[in-house]
Specification:
The complex is a heterodimer. Chain A is mainly alpha-helical. Chain A contains 14 helices and four strands. Classes of the chains: A mainly alpha, B mainly alpha.
Chain lengths: 311, 289
């Protein structure tokens, strides 16, 4: 326990000091990692903890990105209001889509989430009046306001700490959720759905809850990403964006919460640096996915935990 | 009041296009549902087999100036590829549905990037191998499309005969019902798996090859087909062959009719809403048993 506390403090100190010491490009990469780490954890709640394999989380990423962008662009609302609007809209979408997808589970769930994703992408490409289509829309990032203070998101150091604080807050909330009785029920559903049902839990309601929580945090990630890029396009609904959390979670370790973050930290720089010199880097990702599920299905953190428990 | 002839013409065209498209998509969707029904595998790379079919048909025209050779090449190539894929990368994760999805996503990426690297990223067209138009009921319709309908129809009948009149089909259907008992009765279920996956991939490639002159050949063309095939198998009932066939006609005709008054995307949204309604009323599909 004491060791763990030291570890936490150490990680915090490192993360905090990196904010002003990192060179520009690495800081930029770190900001992306913070944002996507939220997405990765959100996916872990859905797949890692509840066993619902979604292949369409980009829907919520995109919905929230536009949920933030459109109010700012058209009515110039301030940051906190637009972020709230984005998250509320995402939750509404999460409830409606979840209601249809979650009931059936298994293969139906996978297929339905894919269909949602592909259809939303088509709509985003088609409704140019709303989304700007393939070209997308740009906007001026609103200031971060706390009462009389205000900070500009055009300063990368500010953005670094801003995104980092969202990541830490998300981690704490989700960690709290999975350690709570609700989290135990979710794990019980993953391990044996019928048994959880027989014990008397309303499995549908818990699975829907996991789906909506996952949608909410995926949305947070999408909204923050549009805030960082000051831009959103139909590509924010791209099905490729739904594959990302699957890779992060599997590489890092499903059902560990920190595993998917490790996945982001390893995969994103890899894509960033390989993508520069080889445009077919996606085939490496494809091969990696096949390799991981066949040879290391527990992921990095999953294997580590296994080793620690054995010793 | 006399009905305007142009509207009648448009409706006839929509019906014809709907039927042609339904037959093509039925090939793809039946492959998908066959693979799922037998192995519980949601094959994400299925759309890419379709794309491979179209790309190889394009190569057939580009290299040998022979579309038919390309189509046959496509079927042979994907059948072999399907067998190899099943044996090498799907077998190790068999019985773990989520992992089979991951493996087929990985495969999908590898196929797409290989095609992008060789075929290129810009859409290509394949000239219609039969350059005849037939005039009837006041419209001109490309003979090739009628031919496509004929070939797809024949392929579907052949599939029916294969599944219901030959011992191979019997083995597949028996394994779909109960793997363990089928295995105990002396059926080599492992070979049945390889055969079915290979057959599914080949059907999808045939659909792609036939569709190549009608649509544009593009390395991501499989995605759209994957979406519509999934909608069809959900509406028809996952694993139900009859349901898949009927749903292919319903959705394809419907989308073609709606496209008369709206954009293709809006037609797709309506298909999605229908799927949602089916899920609420009959969660396991219209024709589930």
């Amino acid at each position: 326990m004491k060791n763990r506390l030291i570890l936490y403090v150490l990680v915090l100190v490192i993360l905090f000091s990196l904010g002003f010491t990192l060179p520009t490009d690495m800081r930029s990469l770190s900001i992306d990692i913070f944002i996507f780490a939220i997405y990765a954890m959100a996916y872990d709640i859905l797949y890692g903890y509840t066993g619902q394999f979604s292949y369409g989380q980009a829907v919520f990423f995109g919905v929230a990105a536009y949920g933030l962008l459109l109010p700012v662009l058209h009515t110039n609302t301030n940051l906190w209001v637009s972020l709230t609007i984005a998250l509320v809209i995402t939750v509404v979408f999460g409830i409606v889509l979840g209601f249809l997808a979650v009931r059936l589970g298994g293969a139906y769930f996978v297929i339905i989430t894919i269909i949602f994703n592909l259809t939303f992408y088509l709509i985003a490409l088609d409704w140019i009046w709303l989304t700007g289509g393939d070209d997308g829309l740009t906007f001026r990032a609103p200031k971060i306001e706390f009462g009389v203070f205000s900070l500009s998101l055009y300063d990368p150091v500010v953005t670094y700490y801003f995104m980092l604080s969202f990541l830490l807050a998300s981690y704490l909330i989700l960690k709290r959720l999975i350690s709570s009785p609700i989290g135990k029920v979710l794990i019980a559903i993953r391990e044996n759905e019928e048994r959880a049902q027989l014990i008397g839990y309303n499995v549908f309601r818990y699975k829907l809850l996991a789906y909506v929580v996952s949608a909410l945090f995926t949305g947070l990630s999408g909204a923050l990403y549009s805030l960082r890029t000051r831009y959103a396009s139909a590509d924010y609904f791209n099905i490729a964006l739904s594959v990302q959390p699957i890779i992060w979670t599997l590489v890092g370790g499903a059902g560990t919460l920190t595993g998917p973050i490790v996945g982001v930290i390893l995969i994103n720089p890899l894509i960033y640096y390989i993508g520069v010199w080889w445009k077919h880097y996606l085939s490496i990702i494809g091969a990696l996915m096949i390799f991981v599920v066949i040879y290391s299905p527990k992921g990095i953190v999953g294997n580590l935990i296994n080793k620690i428990e054995k010793s | 009041m006399p009905i305007e002839p142009t509207i009648v013409n448009k409706i006839i065209l929509a019906i014809l296009n709907g039927v042609v498209w339904a037959l093509i998509i039925a090939l793809v969707a039946l492959g998908l549902t066959l693979i799922f029904g037998l192995m519980d595998i949601v094959n994400i790379a299925h759309g890419d087999f379709y794309m491979l079919g179209a790309v190889l048909a394009w190569y057939g025209v580009a290299l040998f100036n022979n579309f038919w050779l390309g189509a046959v090449m496509a079927m042979i190539f994907t059948a072999i590829l399907g067998a190899v894929v099943e044996r090498s990368i799907i077998r190790p994760v068999e019985g773990l549905p989520a992992f089979t999805v991951v493996v087929t996503i990985g495969l999908s990426y590898i196929i797409q990037q290989s095609v992008l690297a060789t075929f290129g990223g810009s859409p290509q067209t394949v000239p219609e191998p039969i350059r005849l138009t037939i005039e009837f009921l006041g419209i001109r319709y490309p003979a090739y499309r009628l031919f496509v309908a004929g070939v797809s129809g024949l392929a579907l009948i052949a599939l029916g005969v294969f599944l219901f009149k030959t011992p191979y089909g019997l083995w597949i259907r028996a394994s779909m019902q109960d793997k363990e008992i089928a295995s105990a009765m002396g059926i080599n279920v492992s070979n049945v798996y390889i055969m079915t996956f290979s057959l599914g991939a080949m059907l999808s490639a045939l659909g792609g090859a036939l569709a190549a002159p009608i649509t544009q050949v593009f390395y991501l063309m499989g995605l759209d087909v994957l979406a519509i095939s999934f909608i069809i198998v959900i509406i028809g009932g996952l694993g139900s062959l009859k349901g898949t066939l009927i749903a292919a006609f319903i959705i394809s005709l419907l989308e073609n009719f709606i496209t008369l008054v709206a954009t293709p995307t809006e037609a797709r949204v309506i298909s999605l809403l229908i799927m949602g309604a089916v899920l609420l009323i009959r969660p396991k599909g219209l024709f589930s048993t």
